[in-house]
Each structure stands twice: as structure tokens, then as C-alpha cells.
Amino acid sequence: MVLHAHLPYIRYPENEYHLEENWLYEAITETYIPLLGVFGGLLNDGVDFRITLSLTPTLIEMFNDGLLMRRYQRHLNNLIELSEKEIFRTKGHLTLEPLARMYHRKFS
Predict the structure, then answer these.
(1) Which of 13, 38, 47, 73 has its CA 20 to 30 A from that of 20?
(2) pTM
(3) What was the pLDDT predicted at 5?
């Protein structure tokens, strides 16, 4: 299996918040970190698997950018705060409260 990862270069130091930077943050949270979790689980389970993962220089540069990583941490903190509010808002709801808790664990 071959996975190829690329995002266009997005970095806007002149703006505190820029919508396009969310592409990177969502990709990290919803794709790259979960992939690492799956790979780690396969290794822990002793599964003999092979994979090729190619990362473009553009994406690697964004991963290594201190400004983007600080902003990603802020993005994650905002998601954690939102999930805490959702836990409170959905308290006692049979399906929504467990979902809010699941997202809180994921983001934490």
C-alpha cells in the first residue's frame, strides 16, 4: 500500500487566524495522527504489515514550522474547550453525551 500526503503551502504570519491554515490542522487531527495510531496498534498486535508513506517537502516544511505548530496547539486547545462545553450541553443525552466525551478524549 502506498499513501501519498500533500497539502498546498499555507502560512500567513501577518494574520493571527487564516482559514486555509485549518486545512493543515484538520489533516493532522483527522488523518496523520490517526494513521500513526493505526500503525502503532498494528505493531503492538504483532501484525506484519508494509506501507509506503510519501510526504511532500511542502507538507514536511509545514510540520516543522514553529508558528504553524503553535497555532495547531491553539487549534487543539479550542477543540478541547468546545468538547468540554458539548459534554456540559449534552449531559444526560444517551447518544450525544458519549459522542462529546469521545471527541474530548480524542482531542486531549
Answers:
(1) 38
(2) 0.85
(3) 85
Write the CA distances from 90 to 76, 77, 101, 104, integer angstroms.
21, 20, 10, 13
Q: Where are the domains of the chain?
A: 16-107
Given a cut of 90, whether residue 4 has pLDDT beyond it is no
Residue found by looking up cell 459522542 in the block: 99
Residues in contact with 52: Cβ distance below 8 Å, sequence separation at least 6, in sequence order:
1, 2, 3
CB-based burial label for 24 (10 Å; 0-12, 13-18, 19+)? buried
Closest C-alpha among 26, 45, 46 to residue 34: 26
Supply 6's cell numbers: 500533500
